[in-house]
Design goal:
Blueprint lengths: L2 H25 L8 E4 L1 E17 L2 E5 L4 E3 L9 E2 L4 E7 L4 H47 L5 H37 L12 E4 L4 E5 L6 E3 L4 E6 L4 E8 H4 L7 E5 L7 E8 L4 E4 L5 E10 L12 E18 L4 E3 L2 E8 L2 E12 L3 E6 L6 E4 L13
Antiparallel strand pairs: 1-21, 2-11, 2-16, 3-10, 4-6, 4-9, 5-8, 6-7, 8-10, 11-15, 12-13, 12-16, 13-15, 14-15, 16-20, 17-18, 18-19, 19-20
Helix pairs in contact: 2-3
Length: 389
């Protein structure tokens, strides 16, 4: 009669042991970690240098008072269009004494010398432009014959554009020098009846009023700025970048101009990199060596003006078909780079070699294949063989 009772106890103890083993096994099972993943894929990639910048008018002209006298109230305001030769101000000059007249004579001779120098620079710029265009045509012929690379021909095109810009700047300086001569001549106008003749101040160029320092009538000294002119459609971007980044940027590099207020980026191209660096203190209080990079905007929108804040992305390297993964999947191990690849719901550590890298993406040259799924932001809990989901 006791055998069934003993059997029940054995069954009960066995069931309890099985339950304990199951509980312990469940508690000691490998933890399944939730991870975020991405797939290695082939596609285009570019490396850019991103910096803040500001727009400015390429050719600016400050119209100054040619003589000391009483300046009549200005009627022009910021944004007004001004044509070449238009009268922008009237000044009733003070009578000249003998000393002032000698000074005015000297200023006239100086202005005439600068005008002659500006004319000579225009001739030099024309010769340089003709030479650059001849070189460009020769390189086109050589490119067609397969004797040079496309990059060399593009350098010739960029040089022609640069020379054309230098010619335009030289012509602008020549016009400004001519206006200075006229202003110096106006300072020597004879007086009539003991009163000074009214001097008419004319604009040397066609442009837009960028700034009026003071519109009220007042007495001004000679060379006092009256207003500032410029062609608002001829904009450029100036951005200061770290000197270590500036050595990677070259004239002709493509640039995207973003964060200017529009809904699409603007296309630009690097015109030049200034040869001299300067020191600027960063927001963290660190001295940084910076270099100004000048970017041309071929077709600026009408809403973009002088002194506007923008951001530039200068492309320093680009390829159309490379294997890439997010940079957040990489970590260093043993002096090299590695990633965790998901295989059969487990993390497998794999060493990789990388090429170009940006803040978001990295080029993989070996160690992965297209379609491999990598773990992003791997924590210290993830190890080779860890179960992941």
């Amino acid at each position: 009669m006791q055998i069934p009772h003993i059997t029940r106890r054995i069954v009960t103890i066995g069931a309890a042991l099985i339950l304990v083993v199951a509980i312990v096994g469940y508690a000691l099972r490998p933890e399944v970690m939730d991870v975020e993943t991405a797939v290695a894929a082939r596609g285009p990639m570019s490396v850019t240098i991103d910096e803040d910048g500001r727009t400015r008018v390429r050719s600016r002209f400050i119209i100054a008072a040619p003589v000391a006298g009483r300046l009549e109230r200005l009627t022009l305001r910021e944004g007004d269009q001004v044509s070449k030769g238009q009268t922008v101000a009237w000044i009733a000059p003070l009578p000249l004494d003998s000393s002032s007249r000698r000074i005015a004579d000297a200023r006239l001779r100086s202005a005439q010398a600068l005008r002659n120098e500006a004319a000579s620079r225009v001739d030099q710029a024309k010769v340089a432009l003709d030479q650059a265009r001849n070189t460009e045509r020769r390189r086109e012929a050589l490119l067609a014959a397969g004797a040079i690379s496309p990059e060399l021909r593009e350098q010739g095109v960029a040089d022609s554009r640069s020379r054309a810009g230098e010619l335009a700047a030289a012509q602008s300086r020549a016009r400004a020098a001519k206006a200075d001569v006229e202003a110096a001549q106006a300072a020597l106008l004879p007086t009539e009846g003991g009163g000074a003749s009214v001097v008419r101040v004319q604009s040397p160029v066609r442009g837009r009023v960028l700034r009026v320092p003071e519109a009220s009538e007042r007495v001004v000294a000679a060379s006092t700025p009256i207003l500032e002119l410029g062609d608002a459609a001829a904009l450029e971007v100036i951005a200061d970048v770290l000197s270590s980044d500036a050595v990677r940027i070259h004239p002709g590099n493509a640039v995207e101009i973003v964060e200017w207020g529009g809904d699409h980026p603007l296309a630009g191209r690097v015109r030049s990199i200034e040869p001299s660096a300067f020191t600027r203190v960063s927001a963290l209080g660190v001295d940084e060596q910076r270099v100004n990079v000048l970017v041309d905007i071929p077709d600026p929108p009408a809403s973009l003006g002088d002194g506007f804040r923008v951001e530039i992305r200068a492309t320093v390297w680009a390829a159309n078909d490379v294997l890439t993964i997010p940079s957040s999947a990489l970590f260093q191990r043993g002096g090299g780079w590695a990633v965790f690849v998901v295989e059969d719901s487990r993390a497998r550590r794999r060493s990789v070699e990388i090429g170009h890298r940006t803040g978001a993406m990295a080029e993989i040259t070996s160690g992965l294949a297209a379609g491999d799924r990598v773990i992003l932001f791997p924590s210290d809990k993830v190890d080779d063989g860890s179960r992941v989901r």
